[in-house]
Amino acid sequence: MNIVNFSSDEFETKQIEVAHLEEVLKDFRRDGYVIFKDIFPKEYVNSLYSDFINTYGHYFSEENDKNVIKVGNKRIQVSVEVKGAFNSPNLYANPFVLNFLRSIFNNCFIISDLTCVSSLPGAKKMRIHRDGAIFEGLALAPLLPAHAIGLLIPLIPFTRLNGPTRYWPGSHRINQSLADFEENLNFIEPEIDTGSCILMDHRLVHSGNPNRSEQIRPLLYCNYSLPWYFDYINFKHEAHLKVEDTNFEKIPEEYKPFFQRRNMKLL
Protein backbone atom coordinates (compact mmCIF):
# COMPACT_ATOMS: atom_id res chain seq x y z
CA MET A 1 0.00 0.00 0.00
CA ASN A 2 1.29 3.47 -0.87
CA ILE A 3 1.27 4.88 2.67
CA VAL A 4 3.25 8.10 2.96
CA ASN A 5 4.71 9.04 6.34
CA PHE A 6 6.32 12.44 6.60
CA SER A 7 9.44 13.15 8.63
CA SER A 8 9.66 15.60 11.51
CA ASP A 9 11.74 17.88 9.26
CA GLU A 10 9.02 17.80 6.60
CA PHE A 11 6.37 18.66 9.18
CA GLU A 12 8.52 21.50 10.45
CA THR A 13 9.13 23.00 6.99
CA LYS A 14 5.70 21.96 5.63
CA GLN A 15 7.45 20.80 2.47
CA ILE A 16 8.00 17.33 1.04
CA GLU A 17 11.69 16.70 0.51
CA VAL A 18 12.61 16.49 -3.18
CA ALA A 19 13.69 12.83 -3.20
CA HIS A 20 10.66 11.83 -1.12
CA LEU A 21 8.30 13.72 -3.43
CA GLU A 22 9.74 11.91 -6.45
CA GLU A 23 8.95 8.57 -4.77
CA VAL A 24 5.41 9.69 -3.96
CA LEU A 25 4.81 10.89 -7.53
CA LYS A 26 6.17 7.63 -8.96
CA ASP A 27 3.83 5.57 -6.75
CA PHE A 28 0.85 7.75 -7.61
CA ARG A 29 1.43 7.66 -11.35
CA ARG A 30 1.83 3.88 -11.26
CA ASP A 31 -1.03 2.97 -8.91
CA GLY A 32 -3.39 5.95 -9.12
CA TYR A 33 -3.45 6.69 -5.39
CA VAL A 34 -1.37 7.54 -2.32
CA ILE A 35 -2.32 7.68 1.36
CA PHE A 36 -0.96 10.65 3.32
CA LYS A 37 -0.69 9.83 7.02
CA ASP A 38 -1.58 12.26 9.81
CA ILE A 39 -1.46 15.53 7.85
CA PHE A 40 -4.64 17.00 9.39
CA PRO A 41 -5.02 17.64 13.14
CA LYS A 42 -7.65 15.28 14.56
CA GLU A 43 -9.28 18.19 16.35
CA TYR A 44 -9.79 19.93 13.02
CA VAL A 45 -11.29 16.81 11.39
CA ASN A 46 -13.62 16.52 14.39
CA SER A 47 -14.76 20.10 13.77
CA LEU A 48 -15.45 19.26 10.11
CA TYR A 49 -17.52 16.27 11.20
CA SER A 50 -19.45 18.34 13.74
CA ASP A 51 -20.18 21.12 11.22
CA PHE A 52 -21.22 18.58 8.61
CA ILE A 53 -23.65 16.70 10.88
CA ASN A 54 -25.12 19.91 12.30
CA THR A 55 -25.68 21.43 8.86
CA TYR A 56 -26.60 18.43 6.73
CA GLY A 57 -27.69 15.73 9.17
CA HIS A 58 -31.37 16.25 8.34
CA TYR A 59 -30.71 15.28 4.71
CA PHE A 60 -30.17 11.69 5.76
CA SER A 61 -33.88 11.27 6.39
CA GLU A 62 -35.02 13.54 3.54
CA GLU A 63 -33.76 11.66 0.53
CA ASN A 64 -35.87 13.70 -1.88
CA ASP A 65 -34.30 16.99 -0.87
CA LYS A 66 -33.17 18.92 -3.94
CA ASN A 67 -29.65 19.22 -2.50
CA VAL A 68 -29.25 15.47 -2.15
CA ILE A 69 -27.96 13.07 -4.79
CA LYS A 70 -28.40 9.34 -4.17
CA VAL A 71 -25.27 7.55 -5.35
CA GLY A 72 -26.22 4.08 -4.17
CA ASN A 73 -28.22 2.15 -1.62
CA LYS A 74 -28.34 4.37 1.49
CA ARG A 75 -25.52 6.50 0.08
CA ILE A 76 -26.06 10.24 -0.16
CA GLN A 77 -23.91 12.90 -1.80
CA VAL A 78 -24.20 16.48 -0.57
CA SER A 79 -22.49 19.56 -1.96
CA VAL A 80 -20.81 21.16 1.06
CA GLU A 81 -20.87 24.92 1.32
CA VAL A 82 -17.52 26.57 1.98
CA LYS A 83 -18.23 28.08 5.38
CA GLY A 84 -17.42 27.48 9.03
CA ALA A 85 -14.78 24.81 9.49
CA PHE A 86 -14.87 24.13 5.73
CA ASN A 87 -13.72 27.67 4.95
CA SER A 88 -10.15 27.10 6.02
CA PRO A 89 -6.78 26.67 4.31
CA ASN A 90 -6.39 23.72 6.68
CA LEU A 91 -8.78 21.93 4.34
CA TYR A 92 -8.26 23.20 0.79
CA ALA A 93 -4.61 24.30 1.03
CA ASN A 94 -2.85 21.68 3.12
CA PRO A 95 0.85 22.27 2.36
CA PHE A 96 1.64 18.60 1.70
CA VAL A 97 -1.34 18.25 -0.63
CA LEU A 98 -0.49 21.47 -2.49
CA ASN A 99 3.14 20.41 -2.82
CA PHE A 100 1.95 17.18 -4.44
CA LEU A 101 -0.70 18.81 -6.67
CA ARG A 102 1.63 21.49 -7.97
CA SER A 103 3.98 18.78 -9.17
CA ILE A 104 1.21 16.71 -10.76
CA PHE A 105 -0.60 19.62 -12.44
CA ASN A 106 2.42 21.82 -13.15
CA ASN A 107 0.98 24.59 -10.94
CA CYS A 108 -2.20 24.85 -13.02
CA PHE A 109 -5.27 23.59 -11.14
CA ILE A 110 -8.47 24.66 -9.41
CA ILE A 111 -10.88 23.23 -6.86
CA SER A 112 -13.62 21.68 -8.96
CA ASP A 113 -16.02 20.74 -6.16
CA LEU A 114 -16.43 20.08 -2.45
CA THR A 115 -18.79 17.24 -1.57
CA CYS A 116 -19.39 14.64 1.10
CA VAL A 117 -20.60 11.11 0.38
CA SER A 118 -22.21 9.51 3.42
CA SER A 119 -22.77 5.79 3.78
CA LEU A 120 -25.74 5.27 6.11
CA PRO A 121 -26.06 2.31 8.50
CA GLY A 122 -27.07 -0.75 6.50
CA ALA A 123 -25.79 0.60 3.19
CA LYS A 124 -25.06 -2.16 0.71
CA LYS A 125 -22.00 -2.47 -1.49
CA MET A 126 -21.68 0.40 -3.95
CA ARG A 127 -21.40 -0.15 -7.68
CA ILE A 128 -17.90 -0.28 -9.13
CA HIS A 129 -17.11 3.00 -10.84
CA ARG A 130 -14.63 5.71 -11.75
CA ASP A 131 -15.20 9.26 -10.56
CA GLY A 132 -14.49 10.74 -13.96
CA ALA A 133 -12.74 9.82 -17.19
CA ILE A 134 -11.95 11.47 -20.50
CA PHE A 135 -11.75 9.75 -23.89
CA GLU A 136 -13.20 6.71 -22.15
CA GLY A 137 -12.80 3.50 -24.15
CA LEU A 138 -10.07 4.88 -26.40
CA ALA A 139 -6.59 3.36 -26.34
CA LEU A 140 -5.20 6.83 -25.65
CA ALA A 141 -7.06 7.31 -22.35
CA PRO A 142 -4.83 5.26 -19.98
CA LEU A 143 -1.70 6.95 -21.32
CA LEU A 144 -2.76 10.47 -20.37
CA PRO A 145 -1.64 12.22 -17.17
CA ALA A 146 -4.17 12.89 -14.42
CA HIS A 147 -6.77 15.53 -15.24
CA ALA A 148 -8.52 15.43 -11.84
CA ILE A 149 -7.52 14.24 -8.38
CA GLY A 150 -9.73 13.68 -5.38
CA LEU A 151 -8.59 14.53 -1.86
CA LEU A 152 -10.62 12.06 0.21
CA ILE A 153 -10.81 12.80 3.93
CA PRO A 154 -12.59 10.37 6.30
CA LEU A 155 -14.53 12.36 8.90
CA ILE A 156 -14.59 9.32 11.20
CA PRO A 157 -12.15 6.39 11.33
CA PHE A 158 -12.81 4.00 8.42
CA THR A 159 -12.90 0.42 9.67
CA ARG A 160 -13.89 -3.03 8.41
CA LEU A 161 -17.21 -2.56 10.19
CA ASN A 162 -18.29 0.72 8.58
CA GLY A 163 -16.97 -0.13 5.14
CA PRO A 164 -13.62 1.17 3.87
CA THR A 165 -13.51 1.94 0.16
CA ARG A 166 -12.18 -0.77 -2.17
CA TYR A 167 -9.59 0.39 -4.75
CA TRP A 168 -7.98 -1.41 -7.67
CA PRO A 169 -4.39 -0.08 -7.86
CA GLY A 170 -3.26 0.68 -11.39
CA SER A 171 -6.79 0.53 -12.81
CA HIS A 172 -6.49 4.11 -14.06
CA ARG A 173 -3.99 2.68 -16.56
CA ILE A 174 -6.22 -0.18 -17.69
CA ASN A 175 -8.59 0.22 -20.63
CA GLN A 176 -11.08 -2.34 -19.35
CA SER A 177 -14.81 -2.41 -18.67
CA LEU A 178 -15.96 -1.94 -15.09
CA ALA A 179 -17.71 -5.32 -15.15
CA ASP A 180 -14.33 -7.03 -15.52
CA PHE A 181 -13.34 -5.84 -12.05
CA GLU A 182 -16.13 -7.79 -10.33
CA GLU A 183 -13.91 -10.88 -10.27
CA ASN A 184 -10.62 -9.00 -9.97
CA LEU A 185 -9.10 -9.74 -6.55
CA ASN A 186 -6.19 -7.33 -6.92
CA PHE A 187 -7.75 -4.68 -4.72
CA ILE A 188 -6.97 -2.93 -1.44
CA GLU A 189 -9.35 -1.84 1.32
CA PRO A 190 -7.36 0.55 3.51
CA GLU A 191 -8.62 1.31 7.00
CA ILE A 192 -7.87 4.99 7.55
CA ASP A 193 -7.91 6.96 10.78
CA THR A 194 -8.97 10.59 11.05
CA GLY A 195 -6.15 12.97 10.17
CA SER A 196 -5.06 10.86 7.20
CA CYS A 197 -6.36 11.03 3.63
CA ILE A 198 -6.24 9.47 0.19
CA LEU A 199 -5.27 11.28 -3.00
CA MET A 200 -6.86 9.46 -5.93
CA ASP A 201 -6.75 9.81 -9.70
CA HIS A 202 -10.37 10.28 -10.88
CA ARG A 203 -9.92 7.37 -13.30
CA LEU A 204 -9.09 4.84 -10.56
CA VAL A 205 -11.70 2.07 -10.27
CA HIS A 206 -13.20 1.81 -6.79
CA SER A 207 -16.30 0.83 -4.84
CA GLY A 208 -17.76 1.53 -1.39
CA ASN A 209 -18.09 -1.47 0.91
CA PRO A 210 -21.23 -2.19 3.01
CA ASN A 211 -21.70 -0.17 6.19
CA ARG A 212 -22.42 -2.77 8.86
CA SER A 213 -22.09 -0.29 11.73
CA GLU A 214 -24.75 1.84 13.42
CA GLN A 215 -22.94 5.05 12.51
CA ILE A 216 -23.09 7.32 9.47
CA ARG A 217 -19.78 7.10 7.61
CA PRO A 218 -19.05 10.44 5.86
CA LEU A 219 -16.22 10.77 3.34
CA LEU A 220 -15.32 14.34 2.38
CA TYR A 221 -14.19 14.98 -1.20
CA CYS A 222 -12.22 18.08 -2.10
CA ASN A 223 -11.66 17.54 -5.81
CA TYR A 224 -8.96 19.35 -7.76
CA SER A 225 -8.66 19.44 -11.54
CA LEU A 226 -7.14 21.10 -14.53
CA PRO A 227 -9.18 24.26 -15.26
CA TRP A 228 -10.87 22.89 -18.39
CA TYR A 229 -12.34 19.75 -16.78
CA PHE A 230 -16.00 19.66 -15.70
CA ASP A 231 -17.77 16.83 -13.88
CA TYR A 232 -20.83 17.02 -16.12
CA ILE A 233 -22.42 13.85 -14.67
CA ASN A 234 -22.74 14.78 -11.00
CA PHE A 235 -23.22 18.53 -11.24
CA LYS A 236 -25.53 19.33 -14.14
CA HIS A 237 -28.16 21.13 -12.08
CA GLU A 238 -26.32 22.33 -8.97
CA ALA A 239 -23.18 24.29 -8.28
CA HIS A 240 -19.92 22.43 -8.16
CA LEU A 241 -18.54 24.68 -5.47
CA LYS A 242 -20.81 26.67 -3.16
CA VAL A 243 -19.23 29.83 -1.77
CA GLU A 244 -21.25 32.89 -0.77
CA ASP A 245 -19.62 36.28 -1.28
CA THR A 246 -19.11 36.89 2.44
CA ASN A 247 -17.30 33.58 2.80
CA PHE A 248 -15.28 34.12 -0.37
CA GLU A 249 -13.91 37.34 1.15
CA LYS A 250 -12.57 35.32 4.08
CA ILE A 251 -10.39 33.20 1.78
CA PRO A 252 -6.75 34.40 1.68
CA GLU A 253 -5.91 36.20 -1.56
CA GLU A 254 -3.33 33.63 -2.60
CA TYR A 255 -5.98 30.87 -2.59
CA LYS A 256 -8.90 32.73 -4.17
CA PRO A 257 -7.90 31.60 -7.71
CA PHE A 258 -8.64 28.01 -6.61
CA PHE A 259 -12.30 29.05 -6.31
CA GLN A 260 -12.73 30.64 -9.73
CA ARG A 261 -15.56 28.21 -10.55
CA ARG A 262 -17.58 28.98 -7.43
CA ASN A 263 -21.36 28.81 -7.73
CA MET A 264 -21.21 27.78 -11.40
CA LYS A 265 -23.82 25.42 -12.88
CA LEU A 266 -23.77 23.66 -16.23
CA LEU A 267 -27.52 23.92 -16.80
UniProtKB/TrEMBL annotation:
Bilayer-spanning residue ranges: 133-156
Q: Which Pfam families does this chain map to?
A: PhyH (PF05721)
> What InterPro entries has UniProt attached to this entry?
Fungal_Metabolite_Diox, Phytyl_CoA_dOase-like
Instruction: List UniProt keywords, sorted A-Z.
Output: Dioxygenase, Membrane, Oxidoreductase, Transmembrane, Transmembrane helix
GO molecular function per UniProt: dioxygenase activity
Keyword Membrane (UniProt): yes
List, alphabetically, the PANTHER family matched: PHYTANOYL-COA DIOXYGENASE FAMILY PROTEIN (AFU_ORTHOLOGUE AFUA_2G03330)
Its protein name is Phytanoyl-CoA dioxygenase family protein
Q: Which organism is it from?
A: Runella salmonicolor
